[in-house]
């Protein structure tokens, strides 16, 4: 693939697409709140895309091994148009559910296929660098998107959805033009699948794959609570939609800087202590949200959570695609794990907020991460014994 086309598809497209989807995801709970929906309804709105994504990620990941990955990427980019279009005219609860369902379908088609496609390109020894660029791309878009969404929502309730519709259309036509001009890609079974980038003993590889997925699940559980339940707390505290967008920007920007940092560093892939340390920082951030109503404390907490999420995502994605075979399904499992966390977080967090208080979900999330750290330490003990 020509270098300019590779950068356009692999690194520019994720940035722009996530910018549009970040704007949409930011505005969905705010629009739902403006329509009088409760915390539990906000949780179910987050639950629908989560369960859909979990159920469809692996089938689409398997399909990408048999069908050209670029076809699934293109189909997913087309389906991304539909949720934005629906939300531009939404006035009923079922339209929220339908839009979020279609958003998850598009994501399940798009992201595992694109991740596996990137892993097959060029020298396998450059995997860490390429994944660093990719992670920086999509996370930068996700950082900018909520900031734009919060500002646009303050101007007009539907403006973020018009913006995401425009972005989705642009991405689809860019991909359509570039992919149709490119020669057919080999199927996933025929490309660069002889050895992983960093061949290691199976015990070490399986251990780090396990702990990174446990950590990623707990962090995405917490992020699900933040993204779908925190807007209710911020609204009750009188925080403007613009400043809420800024907080979400700080969360994603911290994640972006961490992803970029891990993309530049070497040797972290098989180190346990960095991932444990950043999870402890996430626990600290969640406790701060639980104990405080200060926007400055929220700002610090979001920075801690963003850096932790960037760390666990870097570990999980690297170990998921650093495999000799079946990259599509392995990347899909990576997405399923974080999708499961993103699914359960809003649902449980919404129920806890409804039953107790709007601060309570954050201490629950902190306990979930602490339990995950305990499981990782148990796995480490077992690894030492074997």
Automatic annotation (TrEMBL):
Transmembrane feature ranges: 7-33, 39-60, 72-90, 96-119, 131-153, 159-176, 207-230, 242-263, 270-289, 295-315, 336-356, 362-379
Record keywords: Cell membrane, Membrane, Transmembrane, Transmembrane helix, Transport
GO molecular function, one term: transmembrane transporter activity
Domain Major facilitator superfamily (MFS) profile: 6-384
InterPro entries reported in the protein's UniProt record: MFS (IPR011701), MFS_dom (IPR020846), MFS_trans_sf (IPR036259), MFS_Transporters (IPR050171), Tet-R_TetA/multi-R_MdtG-like (IPR001958)
Subcellular location field: Cell membrane
Coiled-coil parts of chain: none
UniProt topology in membrane: Multi-pass membrane protein
GO CC entries: plasma membrane
Short name of any one Pfam family annotated for the protein: MFS_1
PANTHER family in UniProt: INTEGRAL MEMBRANE TRANSPORT PROTEIN (PTHR23517:SF3), RESISTANCE PROTEIN MDTM, PUTATIVE-RELATED-RELATED (PTHR23517)
Identification of the protein by name: Major facilitator superfamily (MFS) profile domain-containing protein
Taxonomy of the source species: Bacteria, Candidatus Aerophobota
């Amino acid at each position: 693939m020509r270098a300019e086309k590779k950068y356009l598809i692999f690194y520019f497209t994720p940035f722009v697409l996530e910018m549009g989807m970040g704007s949409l995801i930011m505005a969905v709970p705010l629009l739902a709140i403006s329509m009088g929906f409760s915390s539990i309804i906000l949780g179910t709105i987050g639950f629908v895309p989560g369960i859909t994504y979990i159920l469809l990620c692996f089938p689409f990941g398997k399909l990408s091994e048999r069908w050209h990955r670029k076809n699934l990427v293109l189909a997913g980019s087309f389906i991304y148009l539909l949720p934005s279009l629906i939300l531009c005219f939404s006035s009923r609860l079922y339209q929220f559910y339908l839009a979020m369902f279609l958003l998850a379908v598009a994501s399940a088609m798009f992201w595992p296929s694109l991740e596996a496609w990137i892993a097959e390109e060029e020298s396998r020894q450059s995997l860490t660098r390429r994944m660093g660029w990719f992670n920086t791309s999509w996370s930068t878009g996700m950082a900018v998107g909520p900031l734009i969404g919060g500002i646009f929502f303050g101007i007009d309730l539907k403006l973020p959805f018009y913006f995401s519709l425009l972005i989705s259309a642009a991405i689809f036509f860019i991909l359509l033009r570039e992919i149709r001009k490119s020669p057919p890609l080999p199927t996933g079974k025929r490309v660069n699948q002889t050895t992983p980038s960093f061949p290691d003993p199976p015990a070490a590889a399986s251990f780090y794959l396990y702990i990174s997925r446990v950590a990623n699940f707990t962090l995405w559980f917490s992020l699900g609570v933040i993204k779908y339940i925190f807007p209710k707390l911020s609204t009750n505290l009188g925080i403007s939609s613009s400043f809420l967008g800024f907080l979400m920007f700080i969360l994603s920007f911290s994640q972006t800087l961490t992803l970029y940092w891990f993309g530049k560093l070497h040797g972290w892939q098989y180190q346990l202590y960095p991932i444990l340390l950043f999870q402890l920082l996430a626990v600290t951030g969640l406790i701060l949200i639980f104990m405080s109503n200060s926007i400055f404390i929220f700002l610090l907490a979001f920075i801690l959570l963003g850096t932790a999420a960037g760390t666990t995502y870097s570990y999980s994605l690297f170990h998921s695609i650093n495999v000799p075979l079946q990259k599509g399904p392995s990347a899909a499992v990576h997405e399923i794990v974080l999708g499961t966390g993103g699914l359960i977080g809003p649902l449980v967090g919404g129920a806890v907020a409804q039953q107790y208080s709007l601060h309570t979900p954050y201490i629950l999330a902190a306990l979930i991460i602490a339990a995950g750290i305990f499981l990782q330490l148990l796995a480490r003990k077992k690894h030492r014994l074997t």
